[in-house]
Design a protein that fits this description.
The protein is mainly beta and about 230 residues long. About 5% of the residues lie in helices and about 25% in strands. Strands 1, 2, 4, 5, 6, 7, 9, 10, 11, 12 and 13 form an eleven-stranded antiparallel beta sheet that branches.
Length: about 230
């Protein structure tokens, strides 16, 4: 794919199209969006935001207008795409290098207690604007929270994941660094919760995080949505 010149506009626009896959869709034979029995699901796992400092929600929420993940694929219907933004931009310079992006290489933490059940750590990071459509998740981990909920953290920087399959992790423990691997236009974290450890036949679940700020408003328990600046208490 031809390299896209990064601007504040293309940064926002292209991140709206971060994941494309051949997953089970939520569109019925009549072309309408299926109802979801999990729409008002209450998360069992105690989750905290999986990063330090203030971040920005590029995509998140429970409507198609808020969240581009909402319609296409069951396993990531309530997914979040998250970056860091300073003065309205996600990068310094011209944004043509991963190192230009404020979140690239930043620490990522386990959002909740559990066991690591899948790790990929050897996929090259993309040049910004160029997709890897053959390895769509890039470098990722899946955490089994041992209660029917599985956290998926996607697009890590190559070689930075410091946990392995079978490891037990606790909430807040470092697991790796933000990257730009897989079907990703630019460095960011993709995070979602699902019902199984399998990549494509799971069902996505809403996620409520504990004790964080959304646009300076404290949330004891809440669900981040597109356009919010969020950070842990």
């Amino acid at each position: 794919m031809k390299l896209i010149k990064a601007t504040a506009y293309t940064f926002t626009f292209t991140l709206i199209l971060l994941l494309i896959s051949c997953a089970d869709t939520l569109i019925g034979d009549d072309g309408k969006l299926d109802e979801d029995i999990y729409l008002n699901y209450k998360t069992k796992t105690t989750l905290e935001l999986p990063f330090d400092g203030e971040w920005y929600i590029v995509a998140g929420g429970k409507t198609l207008e808020q969240n581009h993940h909402f319609a296409p694929h069951r396993h990531q219907r309530y997914a979040l795409d998250i970056v860091q933004v300073i003065n309205g931009k996600g990068f310094s310079g011209d944004g043509t290098k991963n190192e230009d992006y404020y979140c690239f290489g930043k620490r990522l933490n386990a959002p909740g207690d559990g066991k690591i059940v899948a790790v990929v750590n050897n996929v090259e990071d993309n040049v910004p604007g160029v997709l890897n459509t053959k390895q769509v998740w890039g470098n990722y981990i899946i955490i089994d929270h041992l209660n029917g909920e599985f956290s998926c953290m996607v697009h890590f920087k190559k070689g930075t994941i410091i946990v392995k399959e079978g490891d037990t992790v606790i909430r807040g423990q470092m697991v790796g660094q933000v990257g730009n691997s897989g079907n990703s236009y630019g460095p960011h974290l993709h995070y979602h919760l699902q019902t199984t450890s399998y990549l494509w036949n799971a069902v996505g679940l809403p996620m409520q995080f504990s004790n964080y700020y959304a646009d300076t408003v404290f949330k004891e328990r809440g669900e981040p949505v597109t356009g919010q600046r969020i950070k842990k208490e």
